[in-house]
Amino acid sequence: MPAQLIDGVQLSKQLRADIAARAATLTQAGHQPGLAVIIVGDDPASHVYVRNKVKACGEVGFHSVLEKYEADFSEQALLDRIAALNEDPAIHGILVQMPLPKHIDSSKVIEAIATAKDVDGYSVLSAGELVANLPGFRPCTPYGCMKLIESTGYDLRGKHAVVIGRSNTVGKPMALLLLQANATVTICHSATPDLGYHTRQADVIVAAVGRRNTVTADMVKPGAIVIDVGMNRDDAGKLCGDVDFAGVSDVASHVTPVPGGVGPMTITMLLMNTVESAERVLGKKQERPGQAAGMIPTPGVA
Ligand code: NAP
Prior knowledge:
302 residues, alpha/beta, Rossmann fold, six-stranded parallel β-sheet, 11 strands, binds NADP nicotinamide-adenine-dinucleotide phosphate
């Protein structure tokens, strides 16, 4: 039987409807969620990404600010803008679009964002919260992958998950989220000698490599769930993932398509983190002592 498609577009729609309802409640309380997006330079793909993020904010009723700067914008000027947004009560999330021009130290910029507004979850403190299993903002792409797995009704407890890729933004946080959901996790990377040896034992495979056909049908255990994070181009220039979708669909129980799988979920989880940030601030304002108001539950943990 061919694998069931895990439809990221459909799941995003459902989640965004819920986010919009939460935003409306916050707005009624005089506390509209706000996201600031900063882009430096003229990379066309990055401009498309930020436009999509700002558009998505409008669709769920957020206030959003898009700050565009020329490629020669100084590092100090950028840090000053972040400091101002950190203090701005109308802004609950700050996102600086990567990559930044070479003269700007991106780690310095990420660390300048207040942890309470780090809705990308990229800072060292946010990463530490994830490692320590504390509430905090989870990086949007792996957080979205967890929601996709969750949408199948699959219980990760005691299952074997193999993550291919160990970047700070996708692979590593993905592995930690799966671990928190009580999976047994293997992380593979470019120095892993026999990738198929590991993937064939996996109940869940998450491919986050950036190389097409990294996961083929012979590398997948029958009935496994396969999540494809990769974004590549095939010979015809068409968008494709890391997984041989047609072949793997004959073996897996569930698979995400590219496009229409992980991609739409990334922006959705950015919106989710932002609404949660706004709820957290309102919760604190309303001073509910002893209650972790608006704190973000650890995804996947019962
Ligand atoms: P990255 O920083 O380049 O990391 C790629 C990872 O893949 C590295 O850990 C690398 O290992 C590993 N790798 C490379 N070749 C391998 C091989 N032959 N076998 C096993 N592992 C291998 O990329 P990323 O930022 O994590 O992104 C990964 C992919 O996801 C890209 O295609 C990116 O465009 C896509 N992406 C999609 C979304 C979305 O919203 N859909 C969001 C983020 C990223 P080493 O560490 O040893 O080098």
